[in-house]
Design brief:
Helix content: 25-40%
CATH class of the domain at 2-152: Mainly Beta
Strand order of the largest sheet: 10-13-16-19-20-21-22-23
Distance between the termini: 89 Å
Shape: elongated
CATH architecture of the domain at 2-152: Sandwich
Number of helices: 16
Radius of gyration: 28 Å
CATH superfamily of the domain at 2-152: Immunoglobulins
CATH topology of the domain at 2-152: Immunoglobulin-like
Number of strands: 31
Strand content: 15-25%
């Protein structure tokens, strides 16, 4: 016990001497140039400061008399904090910050002569004895390229050229407009194989990506997280830089250029954003000032068992301000159009991925994470208040009610929600041999029971083509012809089903291999007829979808959909109609989920007259056999499916056909 006391006294003396020395060296730091006002501190303490990026971190001060950089960092349990970097040979004593006297726990100081491009970290000596560490800046705008971990002083000045897009984007992001999303991982969409398999930069991607997305007819591109992350294999979902685009592909201005260029080409930008957890890397947020500052101290609340990462302490006001500021930052500084929030289910359930006894109930004894729910509601309220022409999108995999309903109505306040149930049921159905599908018709029809309970995005995302799941094409049963026919049918069903659309990169041309983040997509496949044909099918589906308001105007209105027949399980055929705003605006869809063509198949129709065939997945230009291809069918006064009129058609094998009434 005596030895322990001596050791503690020794450490205390060491820290005291270090702090005294730091105070002696005040000549290197100016303490009367704070950017923080008393009102800022009030808002931070209340958890209501949503533009912290203007106040904390490293902010370049372009003062002609005394240029330099203001530094401010939240470390309430620190005994001392200094700025270290190349500019002072990483000397822990030469540039100490001073703690504010208002109990905010913020350390600050202005360092003259520090300008854009300077590398730095904070050296933190904790009140937690025997703990000191170098930390990257939680509010850094730019970071060193991994595996280096220092922050970089950076100014975000940029001249935008997307005025026209920004002026009109409310309509582009409207829930009553077509939204077809191309999801990509920027590190593996394309690579330069001839140059050692290197990444394309943000700027190099701009022209390639805009040209491709525009040619394919997608309305938006969604980037897997571009926030800075130390482990490339996490795809960005283990974020350390919540205000910093990863430097693997260029500077912040380079990413701005990419967004700007996409906007100039009439393409919206969605980013994945991860407030559900963060990695435990020593240089980052975890145990920041010698205490569990950003995360919960109790591992039953603060440790994620699936991802072995830290969970934010959503009850701490400063953390709430940090997270909401991060979301606002990407919308304001980078002109991002939509934010897709990852792993919402893991946030709102205290027992997510935990067994009995491994989680702590809330104050009412339930499994709801009340603080996380409150944060998400506040986040959505702020986003829609400040940026009403954008959307927030929830990746939420449970039956939590009213995820995409307004907070004023008791919802979480998101604009859209990924339909994970539709994805799971649909892929399970399509993976079955067609001969067995008649026994599982419910899998393909069940989604329409709840299709209008939320504002859904039908997502065939990256998660479905990794970790041994294979590519979408490889999931399809049968020989090569049947695999491609099944894939065309799947995509046709996606575009005809109510809800917004999302495809992961490579799906659109029938990538054969499972996605590998270390290499480029197999673009050489596009030169082969089967892959070229499926790519053309997706292009034409996008074009048809965007030019037919019937297919998107009523995505979230049950009056926009009606079954013709969902019970023909013996033939594994589904028939339904999509309806527009007017009574006679109707598109008829018939799907055959078997390789057996159905001749003289009777389909009841709501309007007599000619029904023109407007799209057929079995067209030879898409790799089909042309069976069932026709100009259309004239209805006859023969009752079918409870209707007075019907048409007789050939439904192609593993095919989907679209008809439109001539009365439209």
């Amino acid at each position: 016990m005596l030895l322990l006391q001596v050791r503690q006294n020794y450490i205390y003396q060491e820290i005291s001497l270090f702090v005294v020395e730091m105070k002696i060296n005040k000549k290197n730091v100016v303490y009367d140039k704070s950017l923080l006002t008393d009102y800022d501190i009030y808002l931070i303490k209340k958890g209501h400061h949503f533009r912290l990026y203007n106040k904390l971190g490293s902010r370049v001060i372009d003062d002609k008399d005394l240029p330099g950089t203001f530094f401010a960092v939240w470390a309430p349990n620190a005994y001392a904090v200094s700025v270290i970097g190349d500019f002072n040979d990483w000397d822990k004593e030469s540039h100490p910050l001073q703690v504010r006297s208002d109990d905010s726990g913020i350390w600050e100081g202005f360092i003259p002569g520090i300008c854009n491009g300077v590398t730095y970290k904070y050296h933190i000596v904790s009140n937690n004895y025997n703990y000191s560490i170098d930390k990257s800046d939680p509010f850094a705008f730019y970071s060193q390229n991994a595996p280096e971990t220092a922050s970089i002083v950076w100014d975000l000045a940029y001249s935008w050229n997307d005025e026209q897009w920004m002026k009109n984007r409310k309509e582009k992001n409207s829930l009553s407009k077509p939204i077809s999303v191309y999801e990509i991982h920027i590190g593996s969409w394309r690579r330069v194989v001839e140059e050692g398999n290197r990444f394309l930069t943000y700027r190099e991607n701009a022209e390639y990506l805009a040209k491709y997305i525009k040619s394919m007819g997608f309305t938006h591109v969604e980037f897997l997280p571009i926030t800075e992350h130390p482990f490339y294999g996490s795809w960005g979902y283990q974020t350390t830089g919540f205000f910093s685009p990863t430097s693997r592909f260029g500077t912040p201005q380079d990413f701005m250029y990419l967004v700007d260029y996409l906007h100039q080409n009439d393409i919206g930008v969605i980013i994945d954003w991860v407030p559900s957890h963060f990695p435990s890397d020593g240089h980052s947020l975890s145990f920041f000032d010698g205490t569990h500052l950003y995360e919960h101290a109790d591992p039953q609340l603060g440790f994620h068992p699936d991802w072995k990462s830290c969970i934010f302490n959503y009850s701490r006001n400063e953390v709430r301000s940090f997270l909401i500021s991060s979301a606002i930052f990407w919308l304001e500084k980078y002109h991002v159009d939509c934010i897709r929030i990852d792993a919402v289910a893991s946030m709102i359930y205290l027992d997510y991925s935990r067994k009995e006894g491994e989680w702590i109930p809330n104050k009412y004894g339930g499994n709801e994470n009340l603080d996380a729910i409150s944060l998400l509601k506040q986040l959505n309220e702020e986003v829609y208040k400040l940026f009403p022409d954008t959307q927030t999108i929830a990746e939420e995999s449970t039956a939590w009610p009213m995820v995409s309903k307004p907070t004023t109505a008791g919802g979480l306040g998101f604009g859209l929600k990924w339909n994970m149930g539709w994805m799971n049921d649909t892929l399970k159905y399509f993976s079955r041999e067609p001969v067995h599908r008649k026994h599982h018709q419910h899998d393909i029809t069940f989604s329409l029971i709840y299709a209008f309970s939320e504002n859904y995005v039908l997502s065939l995302s990256h998660d479905e083509v990794v970790h041994g799941k294979g590519s979408l094409l490889s999931k399809m049963p049968g020989d090569d012809w049947q695999k491609f026919a099944n894939l065309r049918l799947l995509f046709g069903y996606l575009f005809s089903h109510p809800g917004k659309k999302l495809l992961f990169m490579g799906d659109e041309f029938g990538q054969m291999k499972e996605w590998n983040h270390d290499v480029s997509l197999d673009w050489d496949l596009v030169e082969q007829p089967p892959h070229q044909s499926i790519q053309r099918w997706v292009r034409d589906l996008n074009s048809f979808y965007r030019n037919e308001p019937i297919l998107y105007q009523n995505d979230f209105d049950p009056h926009g959909f009606e079954w013709i027949d969902l019970h023909d399980s013996e033939n594994s055929i589904l028939s339904f109609i999509r309806k527009g705003k007017n009574t006679n605006e109707i598109i008829l869809v018939i799907c055959n989920f078997t390789p057996v063509p159905r001749d003289n198949y009777m389909v009841g129709v709501p309007i007599p007259g000619l029904w023109k065939q407007v799209l057929n997945s079995n067209n030879s230009v898409y790799g089909g056999s042309d069976l069932g291809l026709s100009d259309g069918a004239e209805s006859q006064p023969v009752k079918a499916h409870g209707r007075d009129n019907s048409i007789s058609i050939t439904v192609p094998p593993l095919g989907i056909v679209f008809f439109k009434s001539s009365a439209t």
